[in-house]
Amino acid sequence: MRGTESWHMLWKEYEEPDTRGAVGDACDGIRAFTQYHGAEPVVTIALAIAGAEAAEGLRDALESDWALYTP
Q1: Which distant-in-sequence residues (6+ apart) come within 8 Å of 46 by Cβ?
Q2: How many angstroms separate the CA atoms of 71 and 66, rounded?
Q3: At residue 57, what are phi and psi to the nearest 5 degrees?
Q4: Mean pLDDT on 55-70
Q5: DSSP letter, residue 18
Q6: How far apart are CA 23 and CA 28, in angstroms?
Q7: Is 7 helix (H, G, I), strand (E, B) or coil?
Q8: Packing angle of the helix pair 41-62, 22-37 (nearest 10 deg)
């Protein structure tokens, strides 16, 4: 991506009207956690674990039949 807009701001343009806020809902807890706790080692480990769980969820979602029809 180019430009100064962050990816989550760009994604908001593509969210479906009935799911608006899904990106924010999924990321707000992580943003709040990192802003409050900074870059402490325990935060790094927690983010790695959360990222792994998110990757597993994404893998499961992409194995679904609907994923074939989703841009």
Answers
A1: 33
A2: 10
A3: -65, -40
A4: 86
A5: G
A6: 8
A7: helix
A8: 160
pLDDT in tens, 1-60: 455 667 667 766 666 777 667 777 887 888 888 888 777 888 889 899 999 999 999 999
* pTM beyond cutoff 0.85: no
Tokens (6 digits) for 50? 């959360």
At position 32, the amino acid (one-letter code) is A
Q: What is the DSSP string of 19-70?
A: GTTHHHHHHHHHHHHHHHHTT-HHHHHHHHHHHHHHHHHHHHHHTSGGGGG-
Residue owning tokens 């943003």: 31
Distance CA 31, CA 49 (A): 15
Half-sphere CA count of 53, side-chain side, radius 13 A? 8
